Amino acid sequence: MTHHEHDPLVIAGREFGSRLVTGTGKYDSFETMREAVVASGCELVTVAVRRVDFDAPADDITAYLEDVLLLPNTSGAETAEEAVRIARLARAGGLPDWIKLEVIPDPRYLLPDPVETLAAAETLVEEGFTVLPYVLPDPVLQKKLEEVGCATVMPLAAPIGSGRGLKLKDAIRIMVEQAEVPLVVDAGLGSPSHAAEAMELGADAVLVNTAIARAGDPVAMAHAFRLAVEAGRAARRAGLMEELERAEASSPLAGTL
Amino acid sequence: MTVRVNGAEHALPEGETLAALLERLGLGARYALVERNGEPVERARYGELRLESGDELVVARPVAGG
User: Which of A189, A218, A228, B28 is most open to solvent, judged by the fewest CB atoms within 10 Å of its CB?
Assistant: First the structure.
């Protein structure tokens, strides 16, 4: 195997050359966002849907996001019904029928509601959406979401925007082991090393927003995440050594002077 | 006739289409997402859909988000 081997991420039959998905929130400007998206190499990019404020005209974000697939999210939804409403509105208005499903009733930790998420996923899959649900790292919920036809399952590493890295590694490891659709670690990755760790653990992709947008130099950090995701993926495929309790000399023990 | 758009009243010529209203509101841009009386409107219908007095519209768009 060479590092140039074709190794696409495949979601719902569509191939992506990059295993990094990025969010568009929290950038200082759309120009910086566009440059960061390009530097990240990502091909799938989230956007939110909000009411237009006619008193404060804003630029059209989609003009800055060429050559990527837009992934509208259901942020703001606290119930399944609200999430379904946002998805239907987005699709009717011409956005892709791919939807990042997030149902978040709790403003303090922004943790997703598993019951409402599953209910919304079922409805949206029936209506023909490609559904990418954001969830807690719950292997049982993962199976249920797969059963109703979700295209991915996207467990959080740590609370959104916290940058704390993989806090429930053992649960994610179980999810990797039993995944039948791509597993995307979404939220809470604060550094490229976190992203690499998720990929080494066997995630199929990661979704990063704050760690790039809020970096000192977001464009440079986007590139760093790109390298980390590629390194983590390559390491996973190469097969990591097993950890040992004790030391094992790397140099020969025989023939020492 | 009058319609409400995101809660604000707008006086419009009779028979104004949704596309014309969006243009008037400065949203000729690519993505305006519209709900009319609680139902999402297909983009392909924006040009033909004639608004009626009393219509309640929600107009949304994609914005930055994670």
Answer: B28
Rg of the Cα atoms in chain B: 11
pLDDT band at A4 (very low <50, low <70, confident <90, very high): low
Strands (E), chain A: 9-11, 14-16, 20-23, 44-51, 69-72, 98-101, 130-135, 154-155, 184-186, 205-208
Q: Which domain holds residue A44?
A: 9-238
A160 belongs to a structural domain: yes
Using an 8 Å CB-CB cutoff, list chain B residues near A90.
33, 62
User: Which CATH number goes with the domain that contains A174?
Assistant: 3.20.20.70
Q: Please state the ipTM of this predicted complex.
A: 0.94
* Interchain proximity A60–B42, CB inside 8 Å: no
Asked whether the beta carbons of residue A62 and residue B59 sit closer than 8 angstroms, the reply is: no
The residue of chain B nearest to residue A89, with distances taken between CA atoms, is B40
> Using only C-alpha atoms, what is the Rg of chain A?
19
- The tokens describing A1, both together, are 């195997």
Residues 195-234, chain A: which have Cβ within 8 Å of B?
207, 209-210
Let me know if A100 is a catalytic residue: yes
Structural domain span for residue B37 = 2-60
pLDDT of residue A3 exceeding 60, the answer is no
pLDDT tens digits along A86-127: 999 999 999 999 999 999 998 888 899 999 999 999 999 999
